Structure prediction request, 172 residues.
Amino acid sequence: MKQLLLAFALVATASGTAFAQRDAGAKARGDFFFYARSGESHVNAAHAHASHYHGYLGQTHRVSPTIARLSGTTLTHHIDSAQQHAQAMRDYFVDQNDTEPLATVDVIDKHLAAAKVHHAAAQAHATETPSEPAQAKAAIEAVQTSLDAAKKAHEELIKQQSTAKKPPAKKK
Prediction:
């Protein structure tokens, strides 16, 4: 009986390890869904933070330099990370010789670049004219609009790829 339990435990451990290795290696293999979902997570995180910052800017009469710096760092991180994931999706499709989805990746890139420009404008307003938070607030609204569009494109791409016929696996 002990041997049977030990064998069962070994099989359960080995199969769990195999599943963990597949998930942990998804990024290294260029797995589209890892990049798409992770990129979308960064877009969502940037949007959530922009929403909090927008609310703050609507309530304050003077932008705190600390809040402007923290918001700047956070939004920059998430937008940059989303752009890196979009590039990884582009590389994946090029590597798979699948050019059709590249147009949607271009749309994602365009909206992320616009979010970055609007974010830079918000930061400039917040630091150069902290007593006028309405200007920074308007720029953050534009960030949110761009991120909404990037999120929509991400969702469309994930849906397309979920229903698309998968290309044959590459031969080594």
